[in-house]
Amino acid sequence: MVALENPLFSHAVNAPDGVNMMANTTVLGLGIPLTPVTLLLGPLVTYRVLAVLALAGTAWAWYFGLLARTFLAGSAIAVGVSVALLAYPLWFHFLGPQHYRGLPFSPDPYYTDLAAVAAYARESWFGNPVDAAALAHNAAEENTFYGWPVQDVLVWLPTGGIS
Q: Exposure winner among 25, 52, 101, 153, fewest CB in 10 A?
Protein backbone atom coordinates (compact mmCIF):
# COMPACT_ATOMS: atom_id res chain seq x y z
CA MET A 1 0.00 0.00 0.00
CA VAL A 2 2.75 2.46 0.90
CA ALA A 3 4.66 1.90 -2.37
CA LEU A 4 1.44 2.36 -4.38
CA GLU A 5 1.75 -1.09 -5.95
CA ASN A 6 -1.14 -3.40 -6.77
CA PRO A 7 -2.49 -4.45 -3.34
CA LEU A 8 -4.12 -7.53 -4.86
CA PHE A 9 -0.80 -9.15 -5.89
CA SER A 10 2.55 -9.21 -4.10
CA HIS A 11 6.06 -10.39 -4.97
CA ALA A 12 7.08 -10.07 -1.31
CA VAL A 13 5.45 -13.45 -0.63
CA ASN A 14 6.37 -16.60 -2.58
CA ALA A 15 9.33 -14.86 -4.25
CA PRO A 16 10.14 -14.60 -7.10
CA ASP A 17 6.76 -15.69 -8.55
CA GLY A 18 4.61 -13.71 -6.15
CA VAL A 19 1.14 -14.52 -4.89
CA ASN A 20 -2.43 -13.48 -5.60
CA MET A 21 -3.32 -11.73 -2.33
CA MET A 22 -7.00 -12.21 -3.04
CA ALA A 23 -6.46 -15.83 -2.05
CA ASN A 24 -6.47 -14.55 1.54
CA THR A 25 -9.15 -11.91 1.30
CA THR A 26 -9.57 -11.43 5.04
CA VAL A 27 -6.14 -9.86 5.22
CA LEU A 28 -6.90 -7.42 2.41
CA GLY A 29 -10.41 -6.64 3.58
CA LEU A 30 -9.09 -5.53 6.94
CA GLY A 31 -5.56 -4.43 6.11
CA ILE A 32 -6.10 -2.09 3.17
CA PRO A 33 -8.70 0.20 4.77
CA LEU A 34 -6.69 0.35 8.01
CA THR A 35 -3.26 0.93 6.45
CA PRO A 36 -3.23 4.60 7.55
CA VAL A 37 -4.03 3.59 11.13
CA THR A 38 -1.24 1.00 11.11
CA LEU A 39 1.30 3.43 9.66
CA LEU A 40 0.39 6.27 12.04
CA LEU A 41 -0.38 4.42 15.27
CA GLY A 42 1.03 0.92 14.89
CA PRO A 43 -0.34 -2.61 14.63
CA LEU A 44 -1.53 -2.82 18.24
CA VAL A 45 -3.88 0.13 17.78
CA THR A 46 -5.09 -1.34 14.48
CA TYR A 47 -5.86 -4.64 16.21
CA ARG A 48 -7.82 -2.85 18.92
CA VAL A 49 -9.75 -0.83 16.35
CA LEU A 50 -10.61 -4.06 14.52
CA ALA A 51 -11.75 -5.73 17.73
CA VAL A 52 -14.11 -2.86 18.54
CA LEU A 53 -15.39 -2.67 14.95
CA ALA A 54 -16.00 -6.42 14.91
CA LEU A 55 -18.15 -6.25 18.02
CA ALA A 56 -20.02 -3.18 16.82
CA GLY A 57 -20.51 -4.68 13.35
CA THR A 58 -21.84 -7.91 14.81
CA ALA A 59 -24.33 -6.04 16.97
CA TRP A 60 -25.41 -3.89 14.03
CA ALA A 61 -25.85 -6.91 11.75
CA TRP A 62 -27.90 -8.82 14.32
CA TYR A 63 -30.08 -5.78 14.94
CA PHE A 64 -30.86 -5.19 11.28
CA GLY A 65 -31.00 -8.87 10.45
CA LEU A 66 -33.46 -9.77 13.19
CA LEU A 67 -35.43 -6.64 13.99
CA ALA A 68 -35.48 -4.18 11.11
CA ARG A 69 -37.48 -5.92 8.37
CA THR A 70 -37.50 -2.70 6.33
CA PHE A 71 -33.76 -3.05 6.03
CA LEU A 72 -34.37 -5.63 3.31
CA ALA A 73 -35.80 -2.94 1.02
CA GLY A 74 -32.51 -1.04 1.11
CA SER A 75 -30.50 -4.20 0.56
CA ALA A 76 -31.00 -4.08 -3.21
CA ILE A 77 -29.30 -0.69 -3.34
CA ALA A 78 -26.49 -1.94 -1.11
CA VAL A 79 -25.98 -4.99 -3.33
CA GLY A 80 -25.81 -2.80 -6.45
CA VAL A 81 -23.22 -0.50 -4.92
CA SER A 82 -21.23 -3.47 -3.62
CA VAL A 83 -21.14 -5.11 -7.05
CA ALA A 84 -19.89 -1.88 -8.61
CA LEU A 85 -17.15 -1.40 -5.98
CA LEU A 86 -16.06 -5.03 -5.90
CA ALA A 87 -16.08 -5.83 -9.64
CA TYR A 88 -12.28 -5.57 -10.10
CA PRO A 89 -11.29 -7.31 -6.84
CA LEU A 90 -13.71 -10.16 -7.61
CA TRP A 91 -12.34 -10.48 -11.15
CA PHE A 92 -8.81 -10.52 -9.73
CA HIS A 93 -9.79 -13.19 -7.21
CA PHE A 94 -11.47 -15.54 -9.67
CA LEU A 95 -9.66 -14.78 -12.95
CA GLY A 96 -6.49 -12.83 -12.07
CA PRO A 97 -2.92 -14.12 -12.08
CA GLN A 98 -2.41 -17.25 -9.95
CA HIS A 99 -6.09 -17.62 -9.12
CA TYR A 100 -7.36 -20.93 -7.79
CA ARG A 101 -8.16 -23.56 -10.38
CA GLY A 102 -9.41 -26.24 -8.02
CA LEU A 103 -8.36 -27.99 -4.88
CA PRO A 104 -5.42 -30.37 -4.49
CA PHE A 105 -7.67 -32.80 -2.59
CA SER A 106 -11.32 -33.80 -2.56
CA PRO A 107 -13.42 -31.68 -0.19
CA ASP A 108 -16.07 -34.42 0.10
CA PRO A 109 -14.87 -35.85 3.47
CA TYR A 110 -15.05 -32.37 5.04
CA TYR A 111 -18.71 -31.70 5.65
CA THR A 112 -20.72 -30.42 8.59
CA ASP A 113 -22.95 -33.00 10.19
CA LEU A 114 -26.37 -31.56 11.01
CA ALA A 115 -26.00 -32.88 14.57
CA ALA A 116 -22.95 -30.61 14.97
CA VAL A 117 -25.12 -27.49 15.05
CA ALA A 118 -26.63 -28.57 18.38
CA ALA A 119 -23.36 -29.97 19.77
CA TYR A 120 -20.69 -28.26 21.84
CA ALA A 121 -17.06 -27.94 20.80
CA ARG A 122 -14.58 -30.01 22.81
CA GLU A 123 -12.98 -26.94 24.39
CA SER A 124 -16.28 -25.33 25.48
CA TRP A 125 -17.74 -25.59 28.99
CA PHE A 126 -20.14 -28.38 28.07
CA GLY A 127 -17.96 -29.92 25.40
CA ASN A 128 -17.13 -33.60 25.23
CA PRO A 129 -14.03 -34.65 23.24
CA VAL A 130 -15.54 -38.04 22.33
CA ASP A 131 -18.79 -36.57 20.97
CA ALA A 132 -16.95 -33.78 19.16
CA ALA A 133 -14.53 -36.22 17.52
CA ALA A 134 -17.48 -38.18 16.13
CA LEU A 135 -18.84 -35.06 14.40
CA ALA A 136 -15.67 -33.33 13.14
CA HIS A 137 -12.37 -34.46 11.64
CA ASN A 138 -10.39 -32.04 13.82
CA ALA A 139 -10.89 -29.29 16.38
CA ALA A 140 -10.61 -26.52 13.77
CA GLU A 141 -13.84 -27.75 12.17
CA GLU A 142 -15.81 -27.30 15.37
CA ASN A 143 -16.65 -23.69 14.51
CA THR A 144 -20.18 -24.83 13.57
CA PHE A 145 -20.82 -26.34 17.00
CA TYR A 146 -23.24 -23.79 18.42
CA GLY A 147 -24.89 -25.76 21.22
CA TRP A 148 -28.48 -25.72 22.42
CA PRO A 149 -28.69 -22.04 23.47
CA VAL A 150 -28.43 -20.94 19.84
CA GLN A 151 -31.09 -23.48 18.88
CA ASP A 152 -33.38 -22.05 21.55
CA VAL A 153 -32.86 -18.51 20.24
CA LEU A 154 -33.57 -19.57 16.67
CA VAL A 155 -36.85 -21.17 17.77
CA TRP A 156 -37.77 -18.31 20.12
CA LEU A 157 -37.25 -15.36 17.72
CA PRO A 158 -39.83 -16.29 15.04
CA THR A 159 -42.46 -16.71 17.74
CA GLY A 160 -42.20 -13.04 18.68
CA GLY A 161 -39.54 -13.40 21.35
CA ILE A 162 -38.30 -9.82 20.75
CA SER A 163 -40.83 -7.07 20.40
A: 101
